[in-house]
Structures
1.
Amino acid sequence: MGGLHYNGYVYIVCHLEEKMAIYSTNEFKSGLKVMLDNDPCAIIENEFVKPGKGQAFNRVKIRNLKTGRVIERTFKSGDSLESADVVDVEMQYLYNDGEFRHFMTPESFEQYQCDAKAVGDASKWLKDQDMCTVTLWNDAPLSVTPTNFVELTIVETDPGVRGDTSGGGGKPATLDTGAVVRVPLFVQQGEMIKVDTRTGEYISRVKE
Amino acid sequence: MSNAWQPTCSIESLRLRAKLLQKIRSYFSARDVLEVETPLLSHSCGTDPYLDFFTTTYEYAAQSNKLFLQASPEFAMKRLLCAGSGSIYQICKAFRKGESGRFHNPEFTMLEWYRVGYNLDHLMDDVEDLLVFLSKESLSLSTTEKYSYREVFTNVTGLDPFVFSVEQYSAFVIKHNRAEALTICGHDHNLWLDFIFSHYVQPSLGLSGFCLVYGYPATQSSLARINIENPEIVDRVEVFFKGVELGNGYYELQDAQEQNQRFDNEIQVRQEIGCPLVVKDDRLISALYEGLPDCSGIAIGLDRLLMILTESVSIDDVLSFSIQRA
């Protein structure tokens, strides 16, 4: 805050901590977070297109971080977008109160609550105390990404055929988070397994 | 340790480049076209509103002079033509500020040549001969295609490039999910043509062989001659392969007064849209008053040609050191 003297009055000038940077098309790099149509987005790809004689364009592939949708948008080269205050923070998943899921940063013990929309598909991989990545936009949760591999317990699956170790065929198994994955026939109820959250595929049994 | 000291291309790619240069020289030598060199630094530059120039200064005799790195060797080569050089070619570096991407490096290699006594048709045949000669060992090519700008534009989009209709152009881009074109292009016919051509027409050109597009709208004339039969078009040709622009050529404008006027018009456009100041090449204008022989000329981007011959994804793959490692 600073004082500005004018006509004998003192005007207080408040400077909001505006850290919004402006990025020009030639700074658009994969991963850059920008505001587009009032939504936070991430640049995926930026292709410079220029007719030898004529206006240059940037054809940009961009992901809307709210909806996850990927769109293509062309810009006149030299145009710019505001940066989006989007950060990925490692957090611990605490609990589900029915309406919100609660997360905490392990260093500062700061807690965040996420509604079902922000949690999205991650919900089926989240187990109490597990670490995950919470994406914050203006310090509010935007999305949740589980770790690439999670270890979960099978709460329900049909007994397999004895002696089958090939893994061929497989059967559905319900995990303690509610997720259903296909597992080999030899994997039994009560066992802990490792799953790839990006594909939803069974990786291996976990020896405790 | 950083690997930024290493070349961005393979050693094999260096060999291919050397071989390509040899073949180009043998092609022109067999046709009595003289190889020349002209300065990369010049006191003046082009006036194209869409080009941005690198500048530097030098001190001489207590004077400080601004110099431009050339965006193409065209003006100097035309001065040689006016001085009586006959047909000439040059392999040189060209510089364009702010152009960087998968198909652009701000410093790149250009092959430019001029053939005295050639009109645009002759030049197109020459371009085809050279490109096929350079690439037939590496690529299996179908016959070179030649289309007029109007023909190819209409075939792909159903729109007439010579009849400006914001309604029809808008309807087309909206239908193809690029409504942002309305904001970008507004009521600027040329911008619309650039947008539609580069997004929809160009990607479909030369998918299995070289493609030449001629007869550009007169509003995109640059240094080309207005067509003698149809004043709506200019005798300009562009070369494409697999949707990539390889070169741009003209049946060269001889009229010094008209060239001077075009430069002035472009300088005015540059001022209106806030481009950096440029210095008009009065020496080229003087040369044109002396007389440019009847000729056609073209520039081909050799890095892009190498990309095509080696099926590279990025221009970095054919450059010893791209701008990030220069």
Note: The first strand of chain B starts at residue 34 and ends at 35.
2.
Amino acid sequence: MTLPPLPDDAIVLRVDVADWRDAVRAAGRALARSGATLPGYADRMIDVLEEFGAYIVIAPGLALAHARPGPDVRRSGLAVVTLADPVAFGHPHNDPVRVVLGLAVSNAEEHVASVADLANVFNERDAIDRIAAAETPAEVRAVLHVSGGEGRPATDAAGAPS
Amino acid sequence: MRIVAVCGVGVGSSAILKGNAERALDRLGLTADVSASDLAGVREAAADAQVVLTSTELADRVREALGRTWAEIIEVENYFDVEEIGRKLDASLG
């Protein structure tokens, strides 16, 4: 099991957001744009935060926004949003957040292993800093060790269509 | 020995916590069956567990969901800090 591909559509760099809801919505838009979810999934990710608190800020500066599998998940997907200015999510230790990962899974059992792959990436201590500092989608993919996906060539791929 | 990693919805952060708890146990030379659970299912999932791992943010909710339990609830701050997880597991199990 490996992480879902991360096309350019699923990456938003240095976005301006007013608060944590905005930040999660940006991740939701990226997931919808890449075809992984329907737009309503963003609200379900916000609901998780409202119900359970900011526990999704799982490391200093990093939020893992996600919700349960549901009919608004078309296929498993990952999105990366970096923030121009960090925002507080309300976590006692790990605020403020600089990087939001948006995660959608179509089937809980199947994807626990895939999500665990994220641990391999972020166990490297500078991974969050490197993503926060990335200036291109290709740099983000390099840190996460993921591909841009098939079908739709990433703009950084050799021979990208003009 | 059984360990349960708990998060709100059971698909994201608990999976990461499970993976890094297994790494930490490995480094400590310990073996345990580590599973992931959501908050709603934690009572059943942790029925015969020695340790429940979760976020500081969720710890009170987990205590409430578990009621009376033999399991120790360990609060993890940084899910990617295998040393933190290992230190806390070692203090609990050692």
Note: Residues 51 and 93 of chain B are 9 Å apart (CA to CA).
